[in-house]
Design a protein that fits this description.
It is built from five helices and eleven strands. It is of the alpha+beta class.
Length: 208
């Protein structure tokens, strides 16, 4: 059975300590290989302890475990990670397991329509026989991700592929149109994009 992410109920029960030893072992085994769920648990622990006399922030151990998970995924044929920072309306890539592409060239007419310069960063990686490109367009203090999917053997852009963007406590579902999938702008945080039958993309966004 394919491993799945933890539900809000499972995470809450785990933090509250009301799960069985077997369930705790299963959850901790999942956290050891899923940076998204690990960060969700760390953030929720911080919220739970915020009203105590001595608030406890997420431990350095938890954060180092999350970094280790990202490093372990570096050579995965179905996953790649992107870490970026948004500063002064510019998107700067801090690290990625994909390949950074040249900026997309805009036509003169498109350039004239823009009120201010806009930076679009493009990163690509081959996943499950598809070339997956992520375009990251800054929008004020957020970034809007768009995924472009091209089948490598035929150069076709598939329609109707389901993609889900997971963020703490939310999930946005979209379908590809001519190989493109656009998501809502994202602010600072950890996100995961799952594309059916292709793979996953991890996004770590930091603010200025």
């Amino acid at each position: 059975m394919k491993d799945r992410c933890l539900t809000d109920e499972e995470i809450t029960a785990y933090i509250d300590g009301v799960v069985s030893p077997e369930e705790r072992a299963r959850i901790e085994a999942h956290l050891a290989k899923c940076g998204f769920c690990l960060h969700t648990v760390a953030e929720l622990k911080q919220l739970v302890t915020s009203n105590e006399t001595s608030p406890v922030a997420p431990t350095e151990v938890a954060l180092s475990q999350a970094e280790a998970v990202i490093l372990e995924n570096t050579d995965s044929p179905t996953h790649f990670d992107i870490a970026l920072v948004i500063r002064d309306g510019i998107c700067k890539i801090l690290d990625s397991t994909g390949d950074l592409l040249p900026p997309r060239r805009l036509s003169p007419a498109a350039v004239r329509r823009q009120r201010s310069p806009q930076t679009i960063t493009r990163i690509s990686k081959s996943l499950s026989g598809f070339l997956v490109t992520v375009e990251l367009k800054p929008e004020r203090k957020a970034v809007k991700p768009e995924v472009i999917i091209v089948e490598e053997s035929t150069s076709e852009r598939p329609d109707g592929l389901k993609a889900k963007l997971y963020s703490p406590g939310a999930c946005e579902t979209k379908y590809s149109e001519q190989g493109r999938i656009s998501f809502s702008p994202l602010s600072s945080g950890y996100y995961r994009i799952e594309i059916e039958e292709i793979g996953t993309i991890g996004l770590e966004i930091k603010g200025s």
